[in-house]
Structures are given as structure tokens and as C-alpha cells.
Amino acid sequence: MGAAGSSALFGLPAPRLLPQSWPRWLGVAAVGLAAVALGAVGWRCARPRRRRRLQQVGTVAQLWIYPIKSCKGVSVSEAECTALGLRSGHLRD
Prior knowledge:
Number of strands: 5
Number of helices: 2
Distance between the termini: 76 Å
């Protein structure tokens, strides 16, 4: 016999996973909250993006490369920006 059958032998009610007294509005509120959240995400993804105009915030006065971090830097007039850092000729930052 299973757990429900053995409790029926002793005159006890069968155990339930969720109580029957939960209000119905709780489930409706959960579904409504999920719908609002999905709608907000959809609206955010669907709306057109505005392009921002670039604004100059400063200029570069000097550019230095430090091939050895604790030593003196080398001043350069231009450098290439790579994934590993700045590079100017044989110097790498």
C-alpha cells in the first residue's frame, strides 16, 4: 500500500502538496505580474534607439609608452592600439 492508503487505514486525511485554502487571486496576480514583466522587456527591445551625438571631452597633449612598467616611459607622436595595448614600432605598452 502507498502512503495515501496507509493513512486511510488509520482514519487520517491524505497529505496534500498545496493547501486548498490558497486564494485564487494569488495565482491571477502572479500571472498578471509575469505578463507585465514580459511586456516591459518586449517594449524595451522593440523601441527604436536614438543615436547620440559624440561630444568632445578633451584632447591628447602627450602620448607615452611604458615598455617596462616601473621604468621611464618613451614619448611617441602616434601609436597603434592593439588588443595587448599600444604599439609604436618595436615598442609595446
